[in-house]
Design goal:
By secondary structure, this protein is of the alpha+beta class. The protein has two domains: 68 residues, no CATH class; 182 residues, NADH Oxidase, CATH 3.40.109.10. 45% of the residues lie in helices and 10% in strands. It is built from 13 helices and four strands. Strands 1-2-4-3 form a four-stranded antiparallel sheet, sandwiched between helices. Helix 3 packs across helix 7. The radius of gyration is 20 Å and the shape is globular. The protein binds flavin mononucleotide. Flavin mononucleotide binds next to strand 3.
């Protein structure tokens, strides 16, 4: 096996775990290799981000496709330690832990905003009513675009040697975070992202994903096919958790908990209310 083949095999083994079937026809490029090597980082060094890191991430984010070229997202980059701490403390009060250390440790917290406020402003300045923005699709469009932008930024950050972790937990404090960063109506923090230099001494490894047949269908969705692949994914998932010294948990158990536990949902059970208060009507 050449060195390159060995590297590719190692990437696939990490992504799917030794136990699961893996595709043998991946078309490898340096970009594909980098994507397969992604892991969330929750332990950061205290160093500031290199100059230009945020702007580089935003240029990558702006290069993502966006719905109808309307540019309906914004980024609020929080690098003021006091504000970051305030947001971190507010989030921590919304979950059953005292602190979310990765927000505190990361030199920057990026808040990705689904932002219809510019569209509303431009339309109202022209003396028109932005009636379309009242529909669910407008909200979804801006949220999708914010996510695509964020993922491009994440890939750019990783290419710079930085690490990121997404923070959906920011929606637990949707109302408070909007106030803390002065968000206008018709905008909403979809999720946060902590970014910084990974602490190599405390880094986690690549988290395995289900075998491709669980998620990939050609032409017709084969309903229920996932059941055949649950056991081997469970084995890969458990092996990963053991390697990381994580608590005993099954993947299906986590899926069921996420679908049944209102505790898992946290204060996001009030999200619709908050989103509507922020100017969206979700018709
Ligand atoms: C939209 C979104 C929200 C997330 N929210 C959180 C979060 O609040 N806290 C956290 O620790 N990880 C969060 N994550 C990270 C996921 O847990 C992580 O991506 C997943 O476990 C897969 O691990 P990996 O990114 O290392 O491959 C989030 C990921 C996404 C895409």
């Amino acid at each position: 096996m050449t060195e390159m083949n060995a590297r590719h095999q190692a990437l696939l083994d990490a992504r799917y775990g030794a136990e699961q079937p893996k595709p043998d026809n991946i078309i490898w490029t340096p970009q594909v290799e980098a994507l397969l090597n992604h892991k969330s980082v929750r332990t950061f060094l205290p160093e500031a981000l290199p100059d230009g890191a945020i702007e580089t991430m935003v240029a990558a984010a702006q290069s993502a496709s966006n719905s109808s070229a309307l540019n309906q997202w914004s980024l609020v980059a929080v690098n003021d330690p006091a504000l970051k701490q305030q947001i971190s403390d507010t989030v921590a009060r919304s979950v059953p832990v005292d602190r979310i250390p990765w927000i505190e440790e990361a030199p920057a917290l990026l808040l990705w905003v689904a932002d219809l406020s510019r569209g509303a402003g431009i339309t109202q300045d022209a003396g028109r009513e932005p009636v379309v923005l009242d529909y669910l699709d407008s909200f979804l469009m801006a949220s999708i675009d914010a996510a695509l932008a964020a993922q491009n930024a994440a890939v750019a950050a990783e290419s710079l040697g930085l690490g990121i972790v997404y923070l959906g937990v920011m929606r637990n404090i949707a109302k408070q975070v909007a106030d803390l960063i002065n968000l206008p109506d018709y905008s909403f923090v979809t999720f946060g992202m902590a970014v910084g230099l990974p602490d190599g001494a405390r880094i986690s490894s690549v988290r395995p994903r289900p075998a491709q047949p669980m998620v990939l269908h050609y032409n017709q969705y084969e309903q229920g096919r996932y059941r055949k692949y649950l056991e081997s994914y469970e084995t890969a998932y458990q092996a990963f958790r053991r390697r990381q010294n994580m608590s005993d948990k099954t993947w299906t158990g986590s899926v069921i908990e996420s679908a049944t536990s209102l505790e898992y949902l946290g204060s996001r059970n009030k999200l619709r209310e908050t989103v509507i208060q922020r100017g969206f009507k979700l018709k």
